[in-house]
Design goal:
The chain is an alpha+beta fold. Strands 1-2-3-4 form a 4-stranded antiparallel beta sheet, covered by helices on one side. The longest helix has 19 residues.
C-alpha cells in the first residue's frame, strides 16, 4: 500500500491499560494525499511497539485520562504549528 500521510510534526502520548504495553497515540499535523492532492490535516494514529497501526482507529478507554491527554497534545502541537510552522518532531509530551 502506498504511503498517503506525511507528518510534519507529532507528539506521542502513552496509552493506558487495557491497551497492550508499549501502546501510544501519535498526534500529528502533516499532509495527506486525497485524489492526488496533498492537504494539511490533523491526525491521531495508534502505535504498537513503535509501529503505526495502519487501519486501526484510536480508542480511549473509559475511566482513563487518555482522551484528555491526547487533547492536551493537540493543543500543544497546534500552538507550536501556528507559532513557527517549522518541521519539528516532539517525541514525548512534556508539561
Amino acid at each position: 500500500m502506498a504511503k498517503v500521510f506525511f507528518p510534519k510534526m507529532h507528539i506521542k502520548v502513552p496509552a493506558s491499560k487495557p491497551h497492550p504495553e508499549n501502546t501510544e497515540y501519535k498526534v500529528s499535523i502533516g499532509g495527506e494525499d486525497w485524489g492526488g492532492n496533498r492537504h494539511p490535516v490533523m491526525k491521531v494514529q495508534m502505535v504498537y511497539n513503535g509501529e503505526v497501526a495502519g487501519r486501526r482507529s484510536p480508542s480511549f478507554p473509559i475511566g482513563t485520562d487518555d482522551f484528555e491527554r491526547v487533547q492536551k497534545a493537540w493543543e500543544k502541537l497546534w500552538s507550536k504549528y501556528q507559532d513557527d510552522n517549522n518541521e519539528i518532531v516532539i517525541d514525548d509530551m512534556q508539561d
